[in-house]
């Protein structure tokens, strides 16, 4: 029966109906998430193909490249580590590079924690694995931590699963068919433009903008350092400047 806007399930008679209604709502949220994330495929697919090509070109076997794509699932970290692999850099440097490049996921997890704190450990592990930049920005822009929507994690799952599946498919195209792709298509350039388009909406306040500018400046200045150390320096500079700018802005706001 209905009570206001709430559905009250009577014992036995309507329990199956309530379960069915809940499942339909979950699937609806899942589909909404996938539909909302679909426009991001324009940038993600060429980026995934390029990553697949680079993995094989760096000396990985197709099986190793597929395993890296599934287990790592972080295009930026993959592309940052592969040149170090080719250069036979120390293993600790590869780990450090991947860690630094993915430090942003520490921030993402802190932001998403209030949304998913009531979910089971299995759910949280799953969502942490498939979290990507674009879906994070989309989800945080749509929901607030105190949003009463009961199935928002299904929305997040729907969009993330779509992006995960598309990334794997695109990577495998690059791994197994990269040699057949005409160089005139310039997928590297298309992927770079797509990545820029994806990152621009994340520049939502001054501290983030200052951090991005600092990282860009250091990346250009240190671009000739060996073993891609310029990338590490840029990440550290961006994080440091962004945190400093956020603290200064917080102090000013406190004085106002």
* Percent of residues in beta strands: under 5%
Provide the residue-averaged pLDDT: 80
* Major sheet size, sense and barrel closure: 2 strands, antiparallel
Tell me the radius of gyration: 21 Å
What is the succession of H and E elements?
EEHHHHHHHHHHHH
Overall 3D shape: globular
Count of domain modules: 2
Unreliable spans: 1-10
Q: What is the number of helical segments per DSSP (H or I, 4+ residues)?
A: 12
Helix content: over 70%
Task: Name its key features.
mainly alpha, 256 residues, 2 domains, two-stranded antiparallel sheet, disordered N terminus
Describe this structure in words.
The chain is an all-alpha fold. The protein folds into two domains: 2-186, no CATH class; 203-256. It contains twelve helices and two strands. The protein has helices at residues 15-37, 41-57, 62-72, 75-86, 91-101, 104-116, 121-129, 133-142, 152-177, 187-199, 206-221, 229-255; strands at residues 2-3, 6-7. It has a two-stranded antiparallel sheet with strand order 1-2. Helix 1 packs across helix 9 (152-177), helix 2 (41-57) runs parallel beside helix 4 (75-86) and helix 2 packs across helix 10 (187-199). It is globular and about 60 Å long. The termini are far apart. Residues 1-10 have low confidence and may be disordered.
């Amino acid at each position: 029966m209905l009570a206001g806007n709430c559905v009250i399930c009577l014992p036995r008679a309507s329990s199956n109906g309530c379960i069915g209604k809940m499942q339909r709502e979950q699937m609806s949220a899942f589909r909404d998430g996938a539909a909302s994330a679909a426009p991001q495929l324009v940038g993600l697919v060429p980026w995934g193909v390029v990553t697949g090509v680079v993995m094989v070109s760096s000396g990985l076997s197709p099986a190793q490249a597929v395993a890296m794509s599934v287990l790592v699932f972080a295009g930026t970290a993959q592309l940052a580590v592969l040149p170090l692999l080719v250069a036979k850099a120390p293993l600790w440097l590869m780990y450090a590079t991947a860690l630094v490049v993915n430090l942003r996921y520490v921030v993402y997890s802190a932001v998403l924690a209030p949304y998913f704190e009531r979910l089971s450990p299995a759910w949280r592990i799953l969502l942490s694995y498939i979290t990507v930049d674009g879906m994070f920005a989309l989800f945080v822009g749509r929901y607030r931590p105190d949003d009463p929507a009961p199935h928002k994690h299904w929305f997040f799952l729907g969009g993330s699963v779509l992006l995960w599946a598309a990334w794997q498919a695109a990577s495998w195209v690059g791994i197994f068919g990269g040699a057949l792709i005409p160089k005139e298509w310039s997928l590297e350039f298309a992927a770079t433009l797509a990545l820029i388009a994806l990152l621009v909406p994340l520049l939502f306040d001054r501290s983030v903008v200052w951090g991005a500018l600092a990282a860009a400046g250091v990346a250009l200045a240190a671009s000739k350092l060996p073993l891609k150390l310029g990338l590490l320096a840029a990440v550290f500079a961006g994080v440091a400047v962004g945190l400093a700018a956020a603290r200064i802005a917080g102090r000013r706001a406190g004085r106002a």
